[in-house]
Amino acid sequence: MRTSIAVLLLSFSGLVAFAGDDWPDFRGPWRDGRATAPGQTNMLGLPLHWSESDNVKWKTPIPYRGWSTPVIANGQIWITTATLDGHDFFVLCVDQAKGAILFNQKIFHHDNPESLGAAANFNCYASPSPVLEPGRVYVSFGSYGTACLDTTSFKVLWQRDDLRCRHFRGPGSSPILWNNLLILTMDGIDLQYTAALDKNTGQTVWKTDRTAQWNDLDSSGQPMGGGDFRKAISTPIVVDVGGAPIMLSAGTKAAYGYDPATGRELWKISDTEFSPATRPLFDNGLAIFATGNGKAQLVAVRPDGHGDLPESAVVWRSTRAVPNRTSGTLDDGLLFTVNEGGIASCTQTADGAGIWRERIGGEYSASVLYGDGRIYCFSQEGKITVLKAARTFESLATNQLASGFMASPAVAGRALYLRTKTDLYRIEDDGNK
Fold first, then answer.
1. Which pLDDT value is given to residue 433?
2. Which 8-state DSSP code applies to residue 293?
3. SS (H, E, C) 131-190
4. Contact status, residue 41 vs residue 2, Cβ threshold 8 Å
5. Are 322 and 294 in contact (CB under 8 A)?
6. Residue 101, pLDDT above cutoff 50
7. CB-side exposure of 109: number of CA atoms within 13 Å?
8. Which DSSP state fits 416?
9. Is 19 in contact with 3 (CB distance < 8 Å)?
10. Residue 16 banded pLDDT, cuts 50, 70, 90
């Protein structure tokens, strides 16, 4: 049932259909952190309890540094990593069954990477996650390079390193696949645009500049903070609205709806915040955006408008415990989030009503996961809090691993694939066979 639903929904939205046990995108097959299809009620058998000595099927040290989420298909796990100084960029393939590293190759080199500066404690040079389709994996390091590899031969089929922008705090937006396009988001301090490449050749099909009104010039006529208030690291999502595909994309000062086939801007809704990192969500016919830093908000918008959307297009706003870096997940009309300061929230997607809000402790950069009626939250300290996905707050378990989480989790079958700051784990409950 899960596989047939995957084929139906992903094909209808122009996305690549995978088997139900694959995790082809950094937020999974549904692009929203759900391990199961919308409406699915059968249990996968995901683990509830684990530790360094319990329910770890394998643990593999990962060289250098990377916050990219593992993507999984056909027995392979793909991740990226980079040297701490940002000079060399690598692609790794790990055997899903045994955890052995099958492939580890430097794809790009950069003589003069821009320093991460103050962001070095929460970003790195390999934060964008790969995206998979049968036979191919696509990796991006933002302006430092994008490449396509054959998943059987490990051969590099094409690569680009000429798509420019100054990330300043490091790249973060992950590539997405839609039909024959690989779509990139390049919101830097100097240039802000989204671009689509032909996934077979790497050639540019379209490129669309952001149209936000910055209003950030200082007394000398230069952008404040050297442009630091113009960058963003959110990843878009393509959804179906009235039978037509719309790409929902969050940038600084505005969120957008684009035609993914042509890059044409269909609409935008302006705001005052900057540097959004969370991925948009779509539920109850509403596009849900987190606006970023500043006076952070969750904003739910009717996505069928045109041009500059009026305030009447906004169905609801919320300013309580809004996440700036961690993407939320959905279940049964509810949005579950955890913000950077460790406040978990449940919000009704139809009207923005707050259902519950509780402090679970820790700091968070990894996005939350839904599976088996649970919400999994992964802290930077290595603590994993498992909550019940329900209208009443209930903590089900607390687990601990040796190192903390910056990368978001992945699921395949009944196993969790967790990338900490140092290692990649396969977590599986042997008692639930």
1. 43
2. B
3. EEECCEEEEEECECCEEEEECCCCCEEEEECCCCCCCCCCCCCCCEEECCEEEEEEECCC
4. no
5. no
6. yes
7. 3
8. E
9. yes
10. low
